Amino acid sequence: DAGVIQSPRHEVTEMGQEVTLRCKPISGHDYLFWYRQTMMRGLELLIYFNNNVPIDDSGMPEDRFSAKMPNASFSTLKIQPSEPRDSAVYFCASSLAGGLGTTEAFFGQGTRLTVV
Amino acid sequence: GESVGLHLPTLSVQEGDNSIINCAYSNSASDYFIWYKQESGKGPQFIIDIRSNMDKRQGQRVTVLLNKTVKHLSLQIAATQPGDSAVYFCAENRHEKGNTPLVFGKGTRLSVIA
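ok -> structure tokens follow
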């Protein structure tokens, strides 16, 4: 498996524009997580899905942020409208269900978003 | 391994020496812990994990120690190499009821001096 795949790797956009980040989780994984990383706040969980259903979106900073998972192999994180303070690296991660097995989350390479 | 303001704590070690990176976790109900390594421009990468029914686990050149009494986790790297230079994060979660998301510490930067 190629691992978690995110696109684009880098995104530069103007304030007010819509931004869509994409993620393809590892095949067979039933959990998908969106994290945001900044120097100030470190790695923060934004939202996570189990079997394509959003479980907890309490980490989504504002209504400008939305996430979808239309099927088991694809998820998007959308920011509309974007603001300079949204500039960060956004990571997608996936994992298997909990229990006695190994369930660490596997991370993608991230999307570096810069809003000017 | 907790952050201070905007700056990550940094550990500088000589190549060949052993490194010890510490982490204080927050939730006494956490039962699963992971150390991740993050190199510049990359996503966090799994190093080693440990469950709460253990207090020590060894991998290749790495050892994780868990002290549940004081909620402390440490990562020991033997014979540190230049390729070990990265930011190291501890993460915790609960598996008791399903798979809760990982909660990450702020990270510690390891700098290896050749």
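Chain A touches chain B through 28 residues (CB under 8 Å).
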